[in-house]
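Exercise 7. Predict the structure of Helix-turn-helix domain-containing protein from Peribacillus frigoritolerans.
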Amino acid sequence: MIGYRVKSLREEKKMSISELSKKSGVAKSYISSLERNLQTNPTILVLEKIASILCITIDALLYEQADQLMDEEWKIIMKDIMGSGISKEEMREFIGERKCAALENK
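Solution. The predicted structure, encoded as tokens:
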């Protein structure tokens, strides 16, 4: 199922396997195996790399409906965050701080 999503999303973006491989740093042979469902258990790191290049979240890569739940503006924001160099830990910390501030203001 993951392979089908990778292939369909890659083709939607009119991207070749070679191009996705070069941009993501994931071996072309691995992507090909994934798309043909020969490789069915990719690591989170591989999923992060591929999702980043396809401008989607890992959830959207794994679950088709997750992509439909996120509107275009959120997709753009997520792409900007992923490309900004902010680590996941830093983003979680920021969100945590915002949640705390909101609770304090109640």
